[in-house]
Each structure stands twice: as C-alpha cells, then as structure tokens.
Specification:
The chain is of the alpha/beta class. It has two domains: 178 residues, 3-Layer(aba) Sandwich (Rossmann fold), CATH 3.40.50; 143 residues, N-(1-d-carboxylethyl)-l-norvaline Dehydrogenase, domain 2 (Orthogonal Bundle), CATH 1.10.1040.10. Helix content is 50%, strand content 12%. It has an eight-stranded mixed sheet with strand order 3-2-1-4-5-6-7-8, sandwiched between helices. Helix 4 packs parallel to helix 5, helix 8 runs parallel beside helix 10 and helix 8 packs parallel to helix 11. The mean pLDDT is 96.
Length: 338
C-alpha cells in the first residue's frame, strides 16, 4: 500500500516509521529541507525525534505533490492552523477514493471547525474520499521507542475504520475503533486546554489535591461541550477522552502542560511562544473553545479562566480564587449530561 504522511514533526515521523516498518511504501512530507535530508541520508529526524533510528525504506520530500500523488492513504499530521492551506495544496494530487486519516488535534481558529469538518470544507465533493480520525494518549517518543500504547480510530464507516485499525496496529500500538467522530476529535482537542490549566497550578507549586480536582472538573467541561455539539457522553470516559486527558495533564512530555507550568512560574505567553519550535495546540484551542462555548451558551469555568489568563492578562492566582469562590452547588446538578 502506498501511504503519504503529511508532516514530519515528532508524531508524523513516528507514524511514518511505524508504517514503513510494516513494509508499507511510505513517503513523508517535510516542511524543512534539513529534516528531509536527515531522514533520507541518515534515517534520522534529530530535530523533532532525536535518538530514534528510522526505517531505511522511509523517504522524505519537501514537494507536497510528489509525496501525495498515487497514495491510497494520506495521513495528516500538521498543526490545526495550517490544515486548511495544506488540504488546499493536497486537493489536486489526491486519488479518487483515497482514505484520509487525520492525526492532528485541534480546532480551526475563526471557523471553530474540527479537522474533519475542515476536510469537508476544502476537499472536492467529487473526490469520494473516506475519512478516519486517529487519536488517543500517545506521546510520539514513547511510541517510537515501541512502548505499549493504545489509541482509537473514529469514522462513520466501519469498513474504513477497520482498515485503518489494521494498518496502524502493531505489537506495541493497539488500535480500537469508534463511531463517535465528534467526541473523539473534541476529546483530543479540548484536553489540551485542561493540560495548560494543570500546568499552571503545578507551576504555582500546588499539590495533588488541586491537580486531581482540576482534571476531574476539566473532564466535566469537555463532556458538557461535547454533548452539546452532538457527541456521546461515554466517549469522554474512553481512550480519546479520559485517557488522553490524564496523559496530557500529567506527562512531562506534554507541550501544553509545559506552557502552563512556565506561565504558573511567572513567564509571559509571548516569551514562551517566541522560543518554541513545536506547536502547543492548546493555546489556539483555548480561544476556539471559549468562543464555541459562548456561541452555544455553555458554561465552562476552567476554560474561561485559562482564556483570560492567556489572552486578557489575568493572573493564575486570581483565576484560581475565582474558581474556588463560585456559587456552591451539587456535583451533578450543573447542566452536564451526567
């Protein structure tokens, strides 16, 4: 099977290497010429995935069309803010009936669309492509080191998700299927907002009680908004919900948690992002989630506070104080589907 992976960051490189290791014919598109050179000449990607030897059959190119032409499966692993332009560039090179697997997590700024909705907005209706979303608790470096990991693949058509499940499954990556694509995509995106919040309170030096409270109530917010947008509540108790949330809020490899940590310790958002090579999706997702909640009249107190800290200059201490002093209520009588 000929497969194109679009994006040679840590996760894109890991997935491309996994597929090449299964004897698939894999090409990967890289934005940076030096990354493509490193992959082709030395079978490494030291910029984004240091210390990992890659399959010798994996080939990289900076020409999007050269990578995508003739591919039966296209795996999208690019930041959400460039997804629309990337799809526009890809559209003319895709085969009819191609399977498009989204492995990116985020919401599009401005439109507030999920990634599969951006695909529907950009790709020609006559293309007849089939879609699936791959998501779950999966730090790229740990998967690249072949440490046991579980993820889920969601889509509307069981035949497509079953094929993608088989394609990505290995002795160290176990893939489940799911039919709630709205919930799986929202879980993967919104957990980054709560991860930033968790990093903030950890940056203040607060304890495990505070962290547990924030993660638990964060899951309520994700579920509340997800159900309002058409997903099922049980999805958020699964791999792409609770699983991804716990990993991203507590793992040291989490970029979003690291952003929150640094803000909690007194650094400015502008200073942090100026030094970041890789994208922390939760920054843009916070604004998009806040605007989605306003649009649909959904109350998300943690998300609202993260938004005001990131974009309105509110202090973490002030936000925490406001959260703790909110009107008292029963645990389940808060408008959530629970």
């Amino acid at each position: 099977m000929r497969i194109a992976v679009i994006g040679a960051g840590s996760w894109g490189t890991t997935l491309a290497d996994l597929l090449a290791g299964k004897s698939e014919q894999v090409g990967i598109w890289a934005f940076e010429p030096e990354v493509a050179e490193d992959i082709n000449a030395r079978h490494r990607n030291e910029l984004y995935l240091p210390g990992i030897a890659l399959a010798e059959s994996l080939r990289a190119d900076t020409d999007l069309g050269a990578v995508a032409r003739g591919a039966e499966v296209v795996v999208l692993v690019c930041p959400s803010h460039v997804m629309r332009s990337m799809l526009s560039g890809l559209a003319g090179h895709l085969n009819s009936g191609v399977v498009v697997v989204n492995a990116s997590k985020g919401l599009e700024s401005g439109t507030l669309l999920r990634m599969s909705q951006v695909e529907q907005d950009v790709l020609p209706a006559g293309l007849g492509y089939r879609h699936a979303t791959l998501s779950g608790p999966s730090f790229a470096l740990e998967v690249a080191r072949e440490q046991p990991t579980v993820v889920t693949v969601a889509g509307e058509h069981g035949e497509t998700t079953g094929m993608v499940q088989e394609l990505f499954s290995t002795s160290y990556l176990r893939v489940y299927t799911h039919d709630d694509i709205i919930g799986v995509e929202l879980g993967g995106a919104l957990k980054n907002v709560i991860a930033i919040a968790t990093g903030m309170i950890d940056g203040l030096g607060l304890g495990y009680n505070t962290r547990a409270a924030l993660i638990t109530r964060g899951l309520v917010e994700i579920t509340r908004l997800g159900v309002a947008l058409g997903s099922r509540p049980e999805t958020f108790s699964g791999i792409s919900g609770l699983g991804d949330l716990v990993l991203t809020c507590t793992g040291e490899l989490s970029r979003n948690r690291q952003v929150g940590l640094r803000i909690g310790r007194g650094e400015s958002l502008a200073g942090i992002t100026a030094k970041m090579r890789t994208v922390a999706e939760g920054i843009r997702t916070t604004e998009a989630t806040y605007l989605l909640a306003v649009k649909h009249g959904i109350h998300l107190p943690i998300t609202e506070q993260v938004y005001h800290i990131l974009f309105k200059g509110r202090s973490v201490r002030q936000s925490l104080d406001e959260l703790m002093k909110r009107e008292l209520k029963t645990e389940y009588d808060d408008g959530c589907c629970w």
